[in-house]
Amino acid sequence: MALTQRLRARTRAWIDRRSPPQTGPVRIHRRRLYILPTRGGAWFGLLLFTMLLGSMNYSNSLGFALTFLLGGLVLVAMHHTHRNLLNLTVRAAPVGPVFAGQPALLAVMLHNPAGQSRLAVAVAADDTVDAQDDAVTDIPAGGDAICRLSLTTRARGRLPLPRLKISTLFPMGLFRAWTWIRLDQSVLVYPRPAGRAPLPPASPGLVEGADRHRTGREDFAGLRRYGRGDPPRLIHWKSYPRTGTLMVKQFDDPRQETLWLDFAMVPGGGVEPRLSQLTRWVQEADRRGLVYGLRLPGAEIPPDRGAPHRDRCLRSLALYAD
């Protein structure tokens, strides 16, 4: 068992040297394409050798003809298997962030620049990661195809895309052609939401220290003279014929409660449980439409709300380093 593991480790190290991370799209060249007989192909070759020995032993011309005919078909099949992957272009679509434990959906796009279709092309992830079975597709002439892989995420942070194996058995399954490709991309994995602690109490105050009189907010506070730079949508056109002066609608920002999600105030011990609790709090505060900020050791995100703010907080939690 130890010998097998060492051989696999050396094989992976050799593959990594041969196929370093690359920015897509990546074109499959001859030097990166490998081909070997399958188990069925090896047995078929043994059968042809046996037929050749029998034909030589009995001087059977029909046996020679059949043996060489089948041998020619094998050579043609080997050529087509190799050509089925040659010059394909591989790239991966950006993968959106996921929470730890959720599958990351990887879309691998294959482009066929040739004038003939490429059939039964399989895409699989490296066996060192958890993924679904091979995704097999046909690529039309001069067209594209998409293979989707589901990768299991276990820990927060940046998960590099696994090494991809592009292979084919077309047309007869006697040979397997394949190549290894590693794309220089990654998936952002948020901490797993967990914890049962309720949201901490909020404190009243204006968001980001803003003035009470701000345009474009909630409570109507009256009219004022138009000033350079005021948005046209706030001009009160109905008052212009009466006063001859452009007036602008003015609104008040109501005082809002500001919620601080502080790493130091999370109950319990351990970094990962605290980050998981903060992740759940961020989700809950965003769902309620609250104004909240995030405090981590060495970093602070000022209070705000909305999807961009939520994503910024989750990103900080995912990339937090002790």
UniProtKB/TrEMBL annotation:
Stretches that traverse the bilayer: 33-52, 58-78
- Protein name, entry field: DUF58 domain-containing protein
Question: What's the source species for this entry?
Answer: Spectribacter acetivorans
Alphabetized, the UniProt keywords read: Membrane, Transmembrane, Transmembrane helix
Q: Which domain of life is it from?
A: Bacteria
Biological classification of the source? Bacteria, Pseudomonadati, Pseudomonadota, Gammaproteobacteria, Salinisphaerales
Q: Does the keyword Transmembrane helix apply?
A: yes
